[in-house]
């Protein structure tokens, strides 16, 4: 994805790698050809899902949206996912971003593939990767996960909490002017997407409110990894309605390259157009 500009706010994409699994594992009722036409699905029906961290520069602040899965597949490997992972630190270095420069990490939700590089190190040496950053998550999301015994949470969130860097917030919180949390619950109880808006231009970073642009074209699609499918669908339907009403660009953390596109209407039909496509 080339750098995107929304007024004075810029958004770049960095990769932590990618996951792959059979499409029907993610979407048991998927129309294979419809997904394949939008990208990311091969002839065998395997879907490849990038692990994208978005870098937002707004009002002098440097923000990251999600931190990938970290150096190993971990629990997702045990769940049957394959992939090449752990690329984010090198991607940050190539982009000239020292971890110390990051002002905030915006966590859409606390699944393992979105919080893996919150920390670095092993054993008793685990520490926040971004030592000067606030790690921001909705209160609802943190209240849910803090009550679990998840090893991923113990490593990638409890460490942040112990360091005094975890910031649970209400829906609508603005970590920088023009950047705002937008509640899209259902995939997890406190899931949030991230709105970017400046100078009359805007975008939404979906988190896992949508894993693939097919869910933007047909927001009624559901995935078995949604904790509350009906709520997730309602959130996605409302999100797509807002995208259309406000003309927002859509950026998906798991969308195939170029990660960003727009919704267009052809008569009564909703279609997806990749950014830069004619």
Describe the structure.
- This protein is α+β, with helices and mostly antiparallel strands and 278 residues long.
- It has helices at residues 23-26, 32-38, 74-78, 88-94, 112-115, 139-145, 151-162, 214-217, 229-246, and strands at 4-6, 9-22, 46-58, 61-65, 82-85, 104-106, 119-120, 127-128, 134-138, 166-169, 179-183, 192-198, 201-205, 249-251, 260-266, 269-274.
- The two termini are 16 Å apart.
- The model has no long low-confidence stretch (mean pLDDT 95).
Q: How would you summarize the topology of this molecule?
A:
Elements: E1 4-6, E2 9-22, H1 23-26, H2 32-38, E3 46-58, E4 61-65, H3 74-78, E5 82-85, H4 88-94, E6 104-106, H5 112-115, E7 119-120, E8 127-128, E9 134-138, H6 139-145, H7 151-162, E10 166-169, E11 179-183, E12 192-198, E13 201-205, H8 214-217, H9 229-246, E14 249-251, E15 260-266, E16 269-274
Parallel strand pairs: 4-6, 6-9, 9-10, 13-14
Antiparallel strand pairs: 1-2, 2-3, 2-5, 3-4, 7-8, 11-12, 12-13, 14-15, 15-16
List keywords for this structure.
8-stranded mixed β-sheet, 278 residues, 6-stranded mixed β-sheet, 9 helices, single chain
Summed up, the helix count is 9
Cα distance spanning the termini? 16 Å
User: Which percent range describes the beta-strand content?
Assistant: 25-35%
Q: What composes the largest sheet?
A: 8 strands, mixed
* Helicity range: 10-25%
Question: Would you kindly provide a brief summary of this structure?
Answer:
With 278 residues, the protein is α+β, with helices and mostly antiparallel strands.
